[in-house]
Design a protein that fits this description.
Layout lengths: L3 E7 L6 H17 L4 E3 L11 H6 L9 H12 L2 E10 L5 E8 L5 E6 L5 E3 L5 E3 H4 L8 E4 L2 E5 L8 H9 L2 E5 L6 H19 L2 E4 L3 E3 L5 E3 L3 E3 L5 E4 L5 E7 L1 H10 L12
Parallel strand pairs: 1-2, 2-3, 9-10, 10-11
Antiparallel strand pairs: 1-16, 3-4, 4-5, 6-7, 8-9, 11-14, 12-13, 14-15
Helix pairs in contact: 1-3
């Protein structure tokens, strides 16, 4: 398994789907110009609506989503592996799925992952989120097979559930992706430590593209897209502005980290 360059595309998406698609494509091209063969975009790539109802009103089922054909064609044109962090895909009259798509260099969607853990919270700042009101949670973990090895898929709030990543690592993932749109409050407190912990616990790379800055609807997201190596070192980091952040990924370093701390082979059942 050879080394390759991976890129996080950081966005500040709005509720203008066409403009979000345009900006995302432009930044993907920048990432390719920087040598990236695997490119990941954040959660809510093409739509950051002011609330769940507005998102539902602007969403389509997968067959009619306007962004997916554009991204599939772009991956084929550029010959890249492209992870669209998530799109709002309508799955019923009242709910969408928060769904990632991994597209191969032929423009084929190789795997889909619907976010399992949904963010329902009342923050001390007064912000309230009820993702489950309009989003249907997924039920299946996914390890995608790539030329470099297995990559485990996750989305945003999933990173607070270490058992998911343990399962992905046990199924052969040497790297994880965690496209996100963290709030400012939780991002400042937890973003770096959670991503580094999931990488260290499993001897795996973490590739985490993020939304960042103050969006047109007034929502603020933390940004700070990260690529973390299997020893917990930060290889690339963004700020709050849109951009592209690239790092070298070597699957052999995952094997080395797991040899130094072979905890994946030491899991044991226990009673409580």
């Amino acid at each position: 398994m050879s080394a390759f360059r991976a890129a996080c595309v950081q966005l500040r998406s709005s509720d203008d789907v066409a403009e979000n698609i345009r900006v995302t494509c432009e930044l993907i091209r920048q990432a390719v110009a920087g040598g990236a063969a695997f490119i990941a975009t954040p959660e809510n790539t093409t739509l950051m609506a002011p609330d769940g109802g507005a998102k539902l009103a602007q969403s389509f089922d997968e067959a009619r989503d306007p962004a997916l054909p554009v991204f599939r064609a772009l991956a084929k044109e550029l010959g890249i592996w492209l992870l669209i962090g998530s799109l709002a895909i309508k799955v019923s009259e009242s709910k969408t799925a928060n769904r990632s798509f991994l597209i191969d260099p032929q423009g084929t969607v190789t795997v889909r992952y619907s976010k399992i853990h949904l963010f329902d919270v009342d923050l001390p700042s007064g912000e309230k989120y009820r993702e489950s009101n309009t989003v249907a949670g997924g039920a299946e973990a996914v390890v995608a097979q790539t030329p470099w090895g297995g990559i485990g898929l996750s989305v945003c709030y999933d990173i607070r559930f270490p058992q998911l990543y343990r399962s992905l690592a046990q199924k052969g993932a040497f790297a994880f992706v965690a496209p996100s749109a963290f709030t400012q409050t939780t991002g400042r407190a937890h973003w770096h430590v959670l991503l580094r912990a999931r990488a260290i616990e499993n001897g795996a790379y973490m590739i985490a593209p993020a939304q960042g800055g103050v969006h047109a609807n007034g929502r603020s997201t933390y940004g700070h897209s990260l690529i973390v190596d299997p020893w917990g070192e930060i290889l690339a980091e963004g700020g709050t502005e849109p951009g592209v952040f690239i790092a070298e990924i070597d699957p052999a370093r995952s094997a080395e980290a797991r040899a130094k701390v072979p905890s994946l082979t030491h899991d044991r059942p226990f009673t409580l």
